[in-house]
Amino acid sequence: MAKFSPVIGRYVTIDVDGCEYKVFYLRNGQGQPLVCQHTAGCHNHQWRGLLEDPEITKNYDVIAYDLARHGKSDPPLNKEWWKEEYTLTADHYIKFITTFCDALELDRPIFMGSSFGGNVALHLALHHADRFKAVIPVEAAENSPGFYLDLWRHPHVNAAQVCASGTWDLMAPQSPDMDRWLTWHYYTQGSEVFKGDLYFYSIDHDLRGKLGDIDTKKCPVVMMTGTYDFLTPPEATEATARQIPGGIYIEMEDIGHFPMSENYPLFAVYLKEALRIIEERT
Amino acid sequence: MVMSVRDWSIRFSEASDRDQTIGAMSRYFTCTYLWDMGPVKVIVEMIDGKVYRINTEPQPLDAYDFALRASPATWREFARPIPAPMYHGIWAASFRRDLKIEGNTLALMQNLRNFTVQFELLRKVGVPV
Q1: Is domain B5-124 in CATH 3.30.1050.10, yes or no?
Q2: Residues 77-116, chain B: which have Cβ within 8 Å of A?
């Protein structure tokens, strides 16, 4: 008897700043939409555990998309994208997410992203509090300098291995070997876009001095960071959450920067608490 | 009691040469690096995935591609079976602790997969400081 997953994959075509993107997304569940953004240089398969968690999907419509140029979402189909260097800006990234949510006609989804997905979640709470029921920035902070490096796509290195092993330390040593190596495997697949993503992560993302403008009465913000995250360590996330009026910080013990893919069962414990808090406040 | 650097070099060589993860992609894993642990320094010479030589008494003009330098306390943290946060790898410790990565970092990146695996062998082998 074949073993089928309940997760369904589909494409939707959207226009963002004149770019025609055919976006691939995975979906499973019912109820409150929960839109999930993968980390830089990766793809939506990072959310595989969440997408198949019946305790979540019985009440949440989980949607995990591939950002343009990642996974099965191509670069813009109406542009000669290979003639310019890819650098993701905050403005384009925000527009991509809101346009994607509109295309799927989602009614006030909860947005959750990790790393550069967590950072953009803060931008969504700041600029689009009326469109999102809540945001869950995972492994995020008000700024995250230091990772926009030429070495990620230097022609004299094996970029796939450098991106995968250069992010290895972001995971906790306690996380299962299989899940850490699967995450490593995913990271070998996006090396050409990793640096361009990190333009947003380490350069264009800077919310210092702006966090006080986030209205958590409209859009609660629940931040979560693992104790083994060296890029946005727990103290950076906690300091960020404290500057957001009503912002909440949850520290995740013994897990790292890719919690959803490096150790989903542990991440799920914290995620369920975040969702409970959001239900209480909305 | 701290093991001697000579004993350490034998244990580390054996562990590295036996490691299946390194062995799965060992060809071209060729580089020479210095580990500066304060009172103890070693130069490890890798050729095609095998430890060719460990120089346990480096002299001023002995060559290497790149170096990792940190305090003895940090190296001892690296060697715990489950290191504490920020001591769990070279990136973490260089961003958040006293580890310095110097020299030709391009050579490090060219060998990063295997070097990372090899570095984590310290959790089994220990350190001579």
Answers
A1: yes
A2: 82-83, 85-86, 88-92, 95-96, 105-106, 109-110, 112-113, 116
